Amino acid sequence: MGKAKLTILLAGPRGFCAGVERAVQIVERSLDRFGAPVYVRHEIVHNRFVVEALEQKGAIFVEELDEVPAGATVVFSAHGVPKTVPAEAERRQLVYVDATCPLVSKVHRETEHHFAQGRRILLIGHAGHPEVIGTMGQLPPGAVLLVEKAADVARLALADDEPVAYVTQTTLSIDDTLAVVAALKARFPGIHGPRRDDICYATTNRQQAVKAIAPRVDRLLVVGAPNSSNSLRLVEVARQSGCGKAALIGRAGDIDWGFLAGARRLGLTAGASAPETLVEEVVEACRCRYEVAIEEVAVTREDMRFNLPRALLSVA
């Protein structure tokens, strides 16, 4: 009996974004420039495969700076850090390199601008996410209030005429953010917001690609880490866009083949912190069980690139 047929619709764009590519390069270039070990505060990006590959090259991942020996080199993750972190690094005379995604840094600058204008800042995001912690940590305690969902807006302990502005975590679902923004504008008609949505281009593109393939497939797999906000949002978007059977996997070994039973068309994508290698791994695992046909479904092409920190540009 021959293998069952399976058509895989590959979403495009998928996988690494420019901010993740830059962050990984920063760790690799830092190892070249300063030598191993180089310490990294938190996972450089939310993907164990990437972290373990960098560990093999000499990176050591820590949770806090007190785990870094005096005089050592430390890299801050792509999610951004509170201002207290570089201040502590300088106090301890650590050499530090900031791998914060430039789009996250843009949000940091916006919060500082609004604060200087005397506005209270409302941050749309998820409590406990490193990016949210970093953004709130750009200003004194209480200057930034977190709003996770539209229902939170009515509970904000603010006068309706208080000067306010909003910024957003970059990796949220577009649809969820629009609902919160609408609630904010309804309560605070004079609220200030970003000139453009703070949700990053890569998050938007990956969600649009999932929306394009979800109605056309029986199952959809998102390759990404369980602590990756943008990967989790892709699963949600798939379910909301026509594929109720969508799941997150870390890599091919995590596939539940029972979940794929009876499927004829499989959607496949990857979060912005998952390398293409892991997508290829999933395709090969499918080839072992099915007669696979591949269909690329690209909604746009990405050519965004971010410069490395000046201190690393001279490293070959």
Describe this structure in words.
The protein has 316 residues and is α/β, with parallel strands linked by helices. The protein folds into three domains: 4-16 and 201-298, 3-Layer(aba) Sandwich (Cobalt-precorrin-4 Transmethylase, domain 1), CATH 3.40.1010; 18-100, Rossmann fold (3-Layer(aba) Sandwich); 103-187, 3-Layer(aba) Sandwich (Cobalt-precorrin-4 Transmethylase, domain 1), CATH 3.40.1010. The chain is 36% helix and 20% strand. The protein contains ten helices and twelve strands. It has helices at 18-34, 48-57, 84-91, 102-116, 130-136, 174-187, 201-213, 229-240, 257-260, 276-289; strands at 4-12, 38-41, 59-62, 73-76, 95-98, 120-124, 144-147, 164-168, 219-223, 246-249, 265-270, 290-298. It has a five-stranded parallel sheet with strand order 10-9-11-1-12, with helices on both faces. Strand 6, helix 5 and strand 7 (144-147) form a beta-alpha-beta unit. The longest helix is centred in the N-terminal third of the chain and has 17 residues, at 18-34.
Biggest β-sheet strands, sense, barrel: 5 strands, parallel
Q: Multimeric state of these chains?
A: single chain
Instruction: Report the CATH topology name of the largest domain.
Output: Cobalt-precorrin-4 Transmethylase, domain 1
Low-confidence runs of at least 5 consecutive residues: none
Tally the helices: what do you get?
Answer: 10
Provide the CATH architecture of the largest domain: 3-Layer(aba) Sandwich
Q: Determine Rg (CA atoms, Å).
A: 21 Å
Distance from N terminus to C terminus (CA atoms, Å) equals 54 Å
Number of strands: 12
Look at the structure and give the mean pLDDT.
94
Residues in helices, as a percent range: 25-40%
N to C succession of SSEs: EHEHEEHEHEHEEHHEHEHEHE
Strand line-up in the sheet with most strands? 10-9-11-1-12
Q: Which secondary-structure class do the elements indicate?
A: alpha/beta
Count of separate structural domains: 3
Fraction in beta strands: 15-25%
